[in-house]
Amino acid sequence: VSRGLPIFFLQLHLLQLGYVDIVFANRMDANSPMEEIVRAMTYVINQGMAMYWGTSRWSAMEIMEAYSVARQFNLIPPVCEQAEYHMFQREKVESQLPELYHKIGVGAITWSPLACGLITGKYEDRVPDNCRAAMKGYQWLKEKLQSEDGKKQQSKVKALQPIAERLGCTVAQLAIAWCLRSEGVSSVLLGVSSAEQLIENLGSIQVLTQLTPQVIQEIDAVLGNKPNAKKESRA
């Protein structure tokens, strides 16, 4: 961890920033004592280089340990976890993180709301030549899309189309709004390749108010993968 601090200083300099709003500790390092990690993040904040710190791809147990260490030594605890979350990846955000949200106030910043583009419906018939799955280094995505599970997921995306049409939105907007409605989700990270995509994705905010419990039940019936733990929705 101590070796990583000079790198962070350099990154701030290269970005021409005096500080960042939040810095994430990506993936827990089993070889680094938790106290060292929390002290390093506390130092970064106390030096004015960041306002908050969060975790990324940490387990609920690891986040709770960081919080306990912070309380024990009067240090600064993490405020959020960055986690993958979309209609086909629900377990962590809906079953594990809500307990932390209620107990210690740790929220979630989620990524990949469209499952690498699968939920847009653009892979329904084939893999387009100009999409991410056709790019060098993304063979894993192409194989995933063409797998049996991938085809089943694409059929479910197609089944969501009537719900989206009834709400006057695209399936992509529906999927992003669906992520936003989840308890404890502070924000959803978007990845776009054009201004048009960004504008479309931002339209999901208008859809959020239409996600009534009845609509959520319809979506869950299509997906068929709702975690067993009890959930509450903002809808």
TrEMBL record:
- Limits of the NADP-dependent oxidoreductase domain: 12-222
Q: For this chain's UniProt record, which GO biological process terms are given?
A: regulation of potassium ion transmembrane transport
Pfam families in the record, alphabetically? Aldo_ket_red
Q: Signal peptide location in the record?
A: 1-25
Swiss-Prot/TrEMBL keywords: Cytoplasm, Ion transport, NADP, Oxidoreductase, Potassium, Potassium transport, Signal, Transport
Q: Give a GO molecular function annotation for the protein.
A: voltage-gated potassium channel activity
| Places the protein is found | Cytoplasm
Query: InterPro entries per the record?
Result: K_chnl_volt-dep_bsu_KCNAB, K_chnl_volt-dep_bsu_KCNAB-rel, K_chnl_volt-dep_bsu_KCNAB3, NAD(P)_OxRdtase_dom_sf, NADP_OxRdtase_dom
An annotated GO cellular component of this protein is: voltage-gated potassium channel complex
Domain of life of the organism encoding this protein = Eukaryota
Q: Please report which protein family the annotation says this sequence is part of.
A: Belongs to the shaker potassium channel beta subunit family.
NCBIfam families for this protein: Kv_beta
Name-wise, this protein is Potassium voltage-gated channel subfamily A regulatory beta subunit 3
Q: State the species of origin.
A: Pseudonaja textilis (Eastern brown snake)
